[in-house]
UniProtKB/TrEMBL annotation:
Keyword Cell membrane in annotation: no
Organism: Dyella marensis
4-aspartylphosphate modification, residue list: D58
OmpR/PhoB-type domain: residues covered: 128-228
Entry-linked Gene3D superfamilies: 3.40.50.2300, Winged helix-like DNA-binding domain superfamily/Winged helix DNA-binding domain (1.10.10.10)
One GO term (biological process): regulation of DNA-templated transcription
Keyword list, A-Z: DNA-binding, Phosphoprotein, Two-component regulatory system
Annotated Response regulatory domain residues: 1-122
Membrane as UniProt keyword: no
Protein name: DNA-binding response regulator, OmpR family, contains REC and winged-helix (WHTH) domain
PROSITE patterns recorded: OMPR_PHOB, RESPONSE_REGULATORY
GO cellular component terms listed in the entry, alphabetical order: cytosol; protein-DNA complex
DNA-binding region(s) in UniProt: 128-228
Length: 236
């Protein structure tokens, strides 16, 4: 039996209370693996190689306005977003929803309320299992990868870019150099993408979420080959 997968959550705030160990421990007990970050820059660095099921964004960050972060995240993915607005400001909540947030919570907010909000958001955003299929396929504008058993693995922006590129060439391996160039363009960042880490995390996530191995083969010295029509063996 597969272990329950904890939902990955980024808590982006300067609030020491929400970033402290007691708050993170409460989230952990409720099924969330929460990572605390103090700035938008911290989030963007983590975003390159990791998918978050939800992101909690404080409207007041030291380096970027929370609404700008929300708009950027919504442009990149379908990740659940909770915006922490000003102290009871109705206008802030409206702006947050228009920017793309799924929920807005007025500050101050404690760990119990945040946990309840994230739990409710997860229930609402979780896709229902699909009927059994003969092959792997994409869903939700290619932000999800569905396995033949009807279970789904959500994709980060970088993972989506890589898999779409590989799927467009099902019979011809794609070289590492091509994928690295693709990732550098997709991330719109000057740093080099860590392709090996991305592939490792993607394989692990797909097995955890679906129980199947990702049909991705690496041919040494040649490149990667993705065969979505391949029968999916059970994960070890």
């Amino acid at each position: 039996m597969r272990e329950a997968v904890k939902r990955q959550v980024a808590i982006v705030t300067a609030d020491a209370g929400l970033r402290g160990k007691p708050a993170l421990a409460q989230l952990h007990e409720s099924g969330f693996a929460a990572v605390a970050m103090g700035s938008a820059a911290d989030l963007y660095r983590a975003w390159v190689g990791q998918l978050f099921d939800a992101v909690v964004v404080d409207v007041a960050l030291p380096d970027e306005h929370g609404l700008t972060v929300v708009r950027h995240l919504r442009h990149l993915s379908r990740t659940g977003i909770v915006l922490l607005t000003g102290f009871g400001a109705k206008e802030g909540a409206l702006e947050g929803l228009h920017a793309g947030a799924d929920m807005c919570l007025p500050k101050p907010v404690d760990a119990a309320l945040l946990t309840a909000a994230l739990t409710r958001l997860a229930e609402r955003l979780d896709p229902e299992p699909q009927p059994l299929a003969r092959s792997w396929h994409f869903g939700a504008d290619d932000w999800q990868l569905w396995a033949p058993n009807g279970r789904v693995a959500p994709l980060s922006f970088a993972e989506r870019q890589v898999l779409r590129h590989l799927a467009a060439s099902p019979e011809v391996p794609v070289s590492r150099e091509q994928l690295l160039r693709l990732l550098e363009t997709a991330e719109q960042e000057p740093r080099t993408a860590r392709l090996d880490l991305l592939v490792h995390r993607l394989r692990r996530k797909v097995e955890q979420r679906t129980g199947f191995e990702l049909p991705l083969t690496y041919m040494r010295g040649i490149g990667y080959l993705l065969d979505l029509e391949k029968a999916a063996p059970r994960a070890r």
